[in-house]
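Is flavin-adenine dinucleotide placement plausible here? Inputs below.
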Amino acid sequence: MRNAPITRNATRITLTGPDLANFVAGAPDQRVKLFVPREGRPAPRLALEGQTWREAWERIPEADRPHQRTFTVRAHRSEPVEIDIDFALHSPGGPASRWARSARVGDPIDLLGPTAERNGGYSFEPPSGRHLLLVGDQAALPAIGSIVESLPADARGDVFVEVTTAADRQDLVTPPGVRVRWLYPDDDGHTKCRLLSAVQGTDLPADRGYAWIAGEAGRVRALRRHLVHERGMDRRSIAFMGYWRVGHTEDTAHARVPERQLAQ
Ligand SMILES: Cc1cc2nc3c(=O)[nH]c(=O)nc-3n(C[C@H](O)[C@H](O)[C@H](O)COP(=O)(O)OP(=O)(O)OC[C@H]3O[C@@H](n4cnc5c(N)ncnc54)[C@H](O)[C@@H]3O)c2cc1C
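Reply from A.M.:
I modeled the complex. Tokens:
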């Protein structure tokens, strides 16, 4: 394992290990699960033999049970076998971002990933030749970086990325027909969405193209609503993923609201 800072608020963890040789990515935004050790506790290994990962995870005593978090494979190599995961070092931090800030060579972590291409753990599936609109924040930047690097030389599109500061821009390798624009949050933090106003102001082709949107869940919803209701984009041409949610950890972000709360 290596830990190399990329920009002010992002770091790249490179994972190694013999089991990673079986890893297969289905698409450039392939997601994996990381089991982040609890602070101050040893990192227990998930014993998968004969049980699902969830059963294995639930069998670990609660005090030692690692946090499950979802990340994107930024790159993977076969010789030597390595997987890069880029972490947004957000504030307030959570277990995953805190772990990434301080991880050192040799620190163990479990990764659950696919061993077959058709694995359902990705969203970027554009019809070929369509104009691309890629929109995301600092958590989505690893997927966006991986997607643009995978595009054919004749790809066309617009990319909007909101990063924490100007010092968080990265050099992305893109085909000449793909333009990247960097945005930064306003002083009022989460209340304004720069990405939405940038997308509102951008031209779309007559067939509306294909959009991939990821980032804070509420903003992603607003972007999708805009594309569908105000720009007439076909819902099936939009891949959208809430990568995180203001005020929620990954443990609570997907929890269902009890019905009685909805009724009040
Ligand atoms: C399919 C998928 C792929 C993802 N890929 C990546 C990736 O490659 N790199 C990456 O950095 N993230 C990625 N994420 C997002 C990441 O899983 C979340 O940000 C996760 O919440 C981080 O865990 P944590 O333990 O650091 O924070 P948590 O314990 O989950 O949250 C702690 C606090 O931080 C806030 N928070 C969480 N994430 C952010 C953020 N990004 N910015 C600002 N505040 C935040 C929460 O609202 C909460 O208040 C991905 C998510 C999904 C669903």
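Short version: The two ends are 49 Å apart (CA to CA).
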